[in-house]
Amino acid sequence: MGRTIKPPPGISQAAKKLWGALTKEYDIGDPAGLAILTAGLESFDRAAEAKKILDAEGPVVTDRWGQRKSHPATTVELASRAAWLNAIRMLNLDVEVSNRSPGRPPANWQE
Known about the structure:
Layout: H1 13-25, H2 31-57, E1 60-62, E2 68-70, H3 72-90
Antiparallel strand pairs: 1-2
Helix pairs in contact: 1-2, 2-3
């Protein structure tokens, strides 16, 4: 299963690692799949960049009139995360879903 396809230039090491794992595990090699994965990983990187800014500066800023408002990077992070998750959905990857109900497992629960 899976062949090695060189990742696109300009993506982070974390994105390159995901590229390798996803192209190999799910045998993504068609042009449309690679384009979706590339766009998704670019969004993955953008969300990580915005998160670093927010971690350093906080989610709220004060404007020139002294009003507190959301940091502009919050919008970038949210939109980029949504784009990354949308790309994963568009690739229609088989993701194992837990059939457990929400909440803590019962006392006698075993996997």
